[in-house]
Design goal:
Helix content of chain A: 40-55%
Strand order of the largest sheet of chain A: 3-2-1-4-5-10-9-6-7-8
Number of strands of chain A: 10
Order of helices and strands of chain B: HHHHHHHHHHHHHHHHHH
Helix content of chain B: over 70%
Radius of gyration of chain B: 22 Å
Oligomer: heterodimer
Radius of gyration of chain A: 19 Å
Distance between the termini of chain A: 17 Å
Largest interface: A-B, 20 and 20 residues
Order of helices and strands of chain A: EHEHEHEHHEHEHEHEHEHHE
Number of strands of chain B: 0
Structural class of chain B: mainly alpha
Strand content of chain A: 15-25%
């Protein structure tokens, strides 16, 4: 499930940061890591890229995980997706790099584009950036019970991601009246119990939270409240104009949440 | 333990305090409301224009969207009232007395005093006056009323919530509708309704008095006006106590019949071809300029005119929307959203256009082609405008008497429906409110009109209503959001796939 991974590298990363990410990948039992640099200029890659990439790879080789390097040129997000397909990796992971709002608005975000385009799981590693330990104490499983949940469940029950606490989180629209709202609560509660049943033995404590509001705003707040170390969330697009302009919930969570995020795409 | 009815007592307290202040310090209330009114219209005029246009577009979108099929009630509910009864009641509540008051006065006023970029008393001024009369009384007010009534009807009849404006906010604020926020919205609605209807009663009583003075030579004095208010109060209380199905429906049907008779009579007696020309060309001007009129505040030239007319009307319709909205909602159970929007937008608007063409057109014909000088007299004394016009045509006496009767009945139906709505709003949304509540509000609104008329504070009252319109504009924007959320939820989770939540 997590045997091989592609880590896009823009060469501004510190060796310690990349090492920290590779070490974190032990949670996933990853065996092969591809450090991949994509640049728009092939000459630039030859001048600086190859050497720097090899240095980063060398820094990670003591971890026991096989480290390979990959260099490509072209539009970064598209090339990252192509590389992940050509190398047949099982997921993509990024070390988190925060951009200012202005820079983000002007330049866009490769991470966000990859989350949007990828048909493989994408893991955004923020432990290094947030100076958090690599121990997974609390995991949030954010679900709206869409079809993507079937794809998410194996990741939730993956032994390497087991934590002491699991917060089952559902954020959705409030029903139009109190009776319908109670029915909605009951339905969600029932579905959560079905998921919890499948997680038996994986987590010590499981808490259910049913909230109303915009998921992209509420989930990051819940991360702070629960002190979460990881969110597992699904990605599906409803094709609405709003999503086209503002991005999917998953894309927004990646940017706002103060913890690492594992985004699972819809299998279909 | 019995819970205190906060909305009733706080509303009552506010109304009594303001009326008391108006009596204690005549002129003071006017000065106070003038400042607020000027600030609101000057600073937020554009907001009214944009919002009202938005409400109209939103109503049309609802009608043509898939949500148009949703019923204002359970799927098995059938409409309670016939089309005739329903349309009569919504017309009486929405326009009624105001249309009679301004049917002649508004075209003539704008003919005499158009914006500065149009020559006064010219053909252009006449065209402008008719076009803007259509605009102010046409689709836009009904767009406003639709937002309010549709939201209330949907949440109350389809979602079984209390018959209150605050109920429509459940998708946005949840159980907070039962707390201070919800109560604030309901109190604001009561406030706007009491003062809105008191203004209308005051102006209506003045016009009935003018009509009686011109037809029968009865003195046009304040005592007479107060007597009219007293008599009408007794009548509307009887009607209100007899309930919606009997009193209000019967009176509204009577009203619309008399109004149509008066309209046809004037059409036949007046310059028929001219009226049809006015109707046709004004309809064309209205249709081709509707977007421009909807969004144009005339910032470079003519802003004062926009402020005095368009912005005044938009604020007035918004302030009236809680009352009209609740009332229209109460009679619309069992209609689909599409049917509700289309009928509510088209039928009263067409009637209104005909009304203005017949009465405004006839008055302009007198002024432009017969040189009667009616416009100057009308502008001098607005309540008498209609009767001056009748006097210039054959059967003037018959027309005037019919108009006085119509005014009185419209007066009764407006007050009657307002009493009913106020009683509902202050009985926690009970659609069969206790008689004592109806009697209390009937007396309060008539006394308010009478007291403030005597104190010379009717203008202050008008300005207060407009002041209430600003928070209500915000309330209505959130109503749109709330309604869409509810409809989307229903379509997504209750009519189809329940998997995703």
């Amino acid at each position: 499930m997590f045997d091989s991974v592609l880590i896009p590298i823009n060469l501004s990363e510190e060796p310690e940061e990349v090492l920290s990410l590779v070490e974190f990948l032990r949670h996933f039992d990853t065996k092969i890591v591809y450090l991949c640099n994509v640049s728009s200029s092939a000459a630039r890659i030859e001048r600086h890229g190859r050497k720097k990439l090899e240095e980063l790879a060398a820094a990670c080789r003591g971890t026991g995980i096989e480290i390979r390097t990959e260099i490509r040129s072209g539009p970064p997000a598209v090339e990252i997706i192509h590389a992940s397909e050509n190398l047949e990796v099982e997921f993509i992971t990024f070390p988190w790099e925060r951009k200012s709002i202005l820079l983000h608005a002007l330049m866009g975000s490769i991470t966000r584009d990859v989350v949007r385009l990828s048909e493989k799981p994408v893991f955004i590693y923020k432990q290094w950036f947030l100076k958090k330990s690599d121990v997974l104490d609390t995991v949030i499983f954010s679900t709206d019970f869409s079809p993507v949940e079937d794809a998410m469940l194996p990741y939730l029950t993956y032994p390497g991601l087991a934590a002491d606490n699991l917060v089952m989180l559902h954020v959705g629209d409030r029903a139009p009246d109190p009776k319908a709202e109670n029915r909605r609560h009951d339905r969600i509660d029932m579905k959560m119990n079905e998921v919890i049943y499948q997680c038996t033995g994986v987590f010590t404590n499981i808490e259910k939270r049913i909230l109303t509001g915009k998921p992209a705003r509420v989930i990051p707040r819940q991360v702070v409240r629960a002190g979460a170390d990881l969110i597992i969330t699904g990605k599906h697009s409803d094709g609405s104009a709003r999503q086209k302009v503002l991005g999917t919930t998953a894309e927004n969570i990646v940017h706002r949440a103060r913890c690492s995020v594992l985004v699972i795409p819809d299998e279909g | 333990m019995k819970k205190i009815n906060t909305v009733f007592y706080i509303s009552l307290l506010i109304v009594l305090a303001l009326v008391g202040y108006g009596v204690y310090n005549p002129g003071g209330l006017y000065r106070f409301t003038s400042v607020i009114h000027t600030v609101i219209i000057d600073r937020f005029g554009w907001g009214y224009l944009l919002s009202v246009f938005g409400f109209l577009v939103f109503s049309l979108w609802l009608a043509i969207s898939p949500y148009g099929k949703v019923k204002l009630g359970k799927d098995y509910d059938k409409p309670v009232f016939s089309y005739f009864g329903w349309i009569s009641m919504l017309f009486a509540a929405g326009m009624g007395i105001g249309l009679i008051f301004f049917g002649v006065a508004e075209p003539l006023s704008n003919f005499m005093n158009p914006p500065e970029y149009i020559a006064r008393q010219s053909g252009d001024a006449a065209r402008f006056a008719m076009q803007y009369s259509f605009f102010h009384w046409g689709l836009h007010p009904w767009g406003i009323y639709i937002i309010m009534s549709l939201s209330i009807a949907y949440f109350c009849f389809r979602r079984d919530m209390p018959f209150l404006i605050s109920s429509a906010f459940y998708p946005l604020i949840g159980d907070a509708i039962y707390g201070p926020v919800g109560k604030f919205i309901d109190i604001l609605a009561v406030f706007a309704t009491v003062f809105g209807i008191a203004t209308s009663l005051g102006l209506g009583a003045l016009q009935i008095n003018s009509g009686l003075a011109m037809v029968f030579g009865i003195p046009d004095t304040i005592t007479m006006t107060l007597t009219i208010i007293a008599v009408v109060t007794v009548l509307f209380m009887f009607s209100s106590l007899s309930g919606l199905e009997k009193g209000i429906q019967m009176l509204s049907k009577g009203n619309i019949t008399v109004a149509v008779v008066l309209l046809l009579l004037m059409f036949a007696i007046g310059p028929t071809s001219y009226i049809l020309n006015v109707f046709s060309s004004t309809l064309g001007n209205y249709a081709s300029s509707i977007v421009e009129m909807s969004l144009n505040t005339n910032p470079f030239e003519g802003y004062d005119w926009t402020r005095s007319w368009t912005l005044f009307y938009w604020a007035t319709w918004i302030a009236w929307s809680p009352f009209v909205g609740l009332f229209i909602a109460s009679i619309s159970r069992g209609r689909t959203i599409r049917e509700f929007v289309i009928v509510t937008l088209i039928v009263p608007t067409v009637l209104t256009f005909l009304w203005f063409s017949v009465f405004g057109g006839s008055a302009l014909h007198l002024e432009l082609h017969q040189g009667t000088g009616i416009a100057a007299r009308a502008v001098e004394n607005i309540p008498t405008a209609l009767f001056h016009m009748f006097n210039s045509y054959p059967l003037g006496m018959v027309l005037s008497i019919t108009a006085v009767v119509l005014l009185a009945v419209f007066f009764i139906t407006s007050a009657d429906s307002a009493t009913y709505v106020l009683a509902i709003m202050t009985s926690r949304g009970d659609v069969n409110p206790p008689s004592v509540k109806k009697i209390s509000w009937g007396i309060i609104q008539s006394s308010t009109a009478a007291i403030l008329l005597v104190a010379g504070e009717i203008e202050a009252l008008k300005q207060m209503v407009i002041t209430a319109a600003l928070p209500f504009t915000v309330v209505m924007i959130f109503l749109c959001v709330s309604l869409v959320k509810a409809l989307r939820y229903e379509q997504k989770y209750e009519q189809g796939d329940e998997g995703q939540m």
